[in-house]
Known about the structure:
Layout: H1 3-10, H2 12-18, E1 31-33, H3 44-48, E2 53-61, E3 64-67, H4 80-94, E4 100-106, H5 110-120, E5 137-143, E6 158-162, H6 170-174, E7 176-182, H7 197-212, E8 217-220, H8 226-235, E9 240-242, H9 245-252
Parallel strand pairs: 1-2, 1-9, 2-4, 4-5, 5-6, 6-7, 7-8
Antiparallel strand pairs: 2-3
Amino acid sequence: MTIIKVQWTALFFFICSVAFAQPQHYTTANAHSHNDYLNAAPFYKAFKNGFASVEADIYPVNGKLLVAHSKKEIIAENALKKLYIDPLARELASDPGRKMKLLVDIKDNYKLSLELLLKELASLKPFLSSPETIKQLTILITGTRPASSDYKDYPPYMLFDDDLKLSHTPEQWERVGQVSLSFTRYSAWKGKGKPLKVDIKKLKHTVDSVHKAGKTIRFWAAPDNVTSWKIQKKLGVDLIGTDKIDELGAFLRKF
């Protein structure tokens, strides 16, 4: 029995009332900026393109969270608070209708990183969603993260990214804010030509299963081109990830 089926069985009555449907209409709000901090204008380039999700890799350094792809690339000026938390506080306050996801990818020492993150999120608390209340900003923890049994030890506005490798109780599954999976887990397609039909079938089954389990889904490491974006859209993927913000933004504005 697969993980999805285990979760579906445990959550059957709950999910019947809140089953998630795939997007009926795609906009730039269905876009996710992968490794967003590598852009010349972190946060703002994606935000101004209408993206609803940005990703930042973090390391705890001297009592602060610094954003970097690897330890050797850490720069003291690139603080999570400066690049993301403060801009989010300003922009969400000025635009009450805007909704965002901040995907925080913990690269080292998740316990210390989460301790620091809780402090740094103080200015954003009025905007933070929880399983009970949907607000403007959803915080998603990915990368090195706690076991699902420890989710209860963190505030309800701290939600977790899931890769479907572990089972959850119904209470733990409520703390899952999104499912993120490696595209390469389902297909070896590199973006040229078309994926194999058997791969499309596996991808579609996975997307539909996640939706039936009441969650949104994105794939990472998918080919980053128009053909791939069209396929993901057809599959019903909720967030299409990219390193090409302007190009994906233009693509999604056509619909």
